[in-house]
Design goal:
Distance between the termini: 61 Å
Structural class: mainly beta
Number of strands: 17
Oligomer: single chain
Shape: elongated
Strand content: 15-25%
Largest sheet: 5 strands, antiparallel
């Protein structure tokens, strides 16, 4: 505003000088040997501009907000010391344009605008409709005053009643999204849609074409940061000679097989994230009345992903064992089966900071035990998945054990089957005869009389890029760590 006053004042004095000259008097400052007119500072005061900021020193007292920047007196968009230039005429100052160019192949635009990348939003006939749409298309059919959204959108005039250069719809204090409690102006995505940037790539999700493909926008392209060696785990995290596995840069791996006991692994120096594949064990098969055996235990569940670790810390590794026909459940939570049935498969898990169930950071659920006899009494349910699968009741007319979930053990099948619990499958509340045991898991599956046991659930915890698939592993479980 002071610049406007300065121009007005200067123009005013110039006019006075012209008028005075026309009357024959050309020196309006007779006592000032350096000036013949007052100009901005008045007679006797020089018009110097010591800091070269475009404001005479006589008016520059407290108005220079950027005293160390000779090109600016106010921060503007980019701040003192940084020019507000827009070199590519994209409508976005260069200081903000680095990661926001949504049209990298269009030298004229950084945002799609109305016409999209590669097509100018020009209006050659000045009718208010961009040339790309000017075939008689009314973009605001319900607004008699507008044919295109403009700044304020259809139904809202682009008026600027106070002539401050800001449309009324954008003036402070005006809520342009009255039905949206989280926004007062449309922003990038419009009222009712949050301007969130889930993958933190500086492109709002509503405009992020990479996000709709399940990818991340990095360096002008779409990448799967769970597998990209150049952008592993996050944009710009380059693995170099290493390989990206589920968001972790890795060069080596270690495989843990079933031993029936706890195993340990010390995180090597320099390793801060590991990738893993954790698979629970299969449930035990069953025996039929003709003495034949069936491998009908549910398959173990699988979990993949990566977790952050600390060099030198000890991880505790538990690999589940397959359930036994007419016998014990597998190591790490599988429940026992009875005559004709099979024991549940054990879960596989990794623990940090301790060796208890609450120290588990990832779990692959074990499958439920099968059940045959005569007639056929079903099969065990698969280990999870976030939930284990219920067992199969076969043709015996009984109820199979339920699958474990994220909050509870699987329901008990026909009595005397027992419900699953945290870390363990359910077996029986009385006799073990004809019991199909539940699989171990984050929560174990339920046991059942004369029907298949339920599978245990898997658990992802806070793992990065984690995924789980039910019913993947036959036999004993396994755990692979990539680092």
């Amino acid at each position: 505003m002071r610049r406007l006053h300065l121009l007005s004042l200067t123009a005013g004095f110039g006019l006075t000088a012209v008028l005075a000259a026309s009357c024959g008097d050309s020196d309006l400052c007779p006592d000032d040997p350096d000036k013949t007119e007052a100009l901005a500072c008045g007679c006797g005061v020089p018009e110097t501009d010591a800091d070269g900021n475009g404001i005479p020193d006589c008016l520059d007292g407290d108005l220079d907000l950027c005293p160390d920047d000779p090109q600016k007196t106010g921060p503007g968009v980019c701040g003192c010391g940084v020019s507000d230039e827009d070199a590519d005429s994209s409508g976005i100052p260069d200081c903000l344009d680095a990661d926001l160019d949504l049209c990298p192949d269009d030298g004229e635009k950084a945002l799609p605008g109305v016409c999209g990348c590669g097509v100018a939003d020009s209006d050659g006939n000045d009718n208010g409709v961009p040339d790309c749409l000017d075939g008689g298309i009314d973009l605001c059919p319900d607004d008699a005053q507008k044919t295109v959204p403009g700044v304020c959108g259809c139904g809202v005039a682009d008026d600027d009643t106070n002539d401050n250069g800001v449309p009324d719809c954008l003036d402070p204090g005006i809520d342009l999204c009255p039905a949206d409690p989280d926004k007062t102006e449309p922003g990038y995505c419009g009222c009712g849609i949050a301007d969130v940037d889930a993958d933190e790539n500086n492109v709002p999700d509503c405009l992020d074409t990479c996000l709709s493909q399940g990818l991340s926008y990095c360096d002008g392209g779409c990448f799967d940061v769970s597998a990209s060696d150049a952008h592993c785990g996050a944009c710009g995290h380059d693995c170099g000679a290493a390989t990206c596995v589920t968001g972790a840069c890795t060069t080596s791996e270690v495989v843990f097989s079933f031993t029936g006991a706890e195993q340990t692994w010390v995180v090597p120096a320099g390793v801060t994230r590991i990738a893993f594949e954790v698979q629970g064990a299969q449930g035990g098969g069953s025996k039929c009345c003709d003495e034949s055996l069936q491998d009908d235990g549910g398959l173990g569940g699988s979990v993949t992903g990566s977790i952050d670790v600390t060099p030198g810390e000890t991880l505790y590794v538990y690999v589940g064992g397959k359930g036994v026909v007419e016998g014990l459940g597998g190591f790490n939570g599988g429940a026992a089966g009875g005559q004709w049935g099979g024991g549940g498969g054990g879960a596989s898990d990794i623990r940090r900071g301790g060796m208890t169930l609450v120290d588990r950071v990832v779990v692959g659920g074990g499958g439920g035990g099968g059940n045959c006899g005569c007639p056929e009494h079903g099969a065990g349910g698969a280990g999870g998945g976030l939930s284990g699968s219920a067992g199969n009741p076969g043709s015996g007319g009984m109820t199979a054990g339920g699958g474990g979930t994220q909050v509870a053990g699987g329901a008990a099948g026909s009595a005397p089957g027992a419900a699953g619990a945290l870390g363990t499958g359910g077996s029986t509340t009385a006799s073990s005869y004809h019991i199909g045991g539940g699989g171990g898991g984050y929560y174990g599956g339920g046991g059942a009389y004369a029907a298949g046991g339920g599978g245990g659930s898997s658990f992802l915890g806070a793992a990065h890029f984690a995924a789980t698939t039910a019913g993947q592993r036959a036999g004993d479980g396994t755990i692979t760590i990539h680092y």
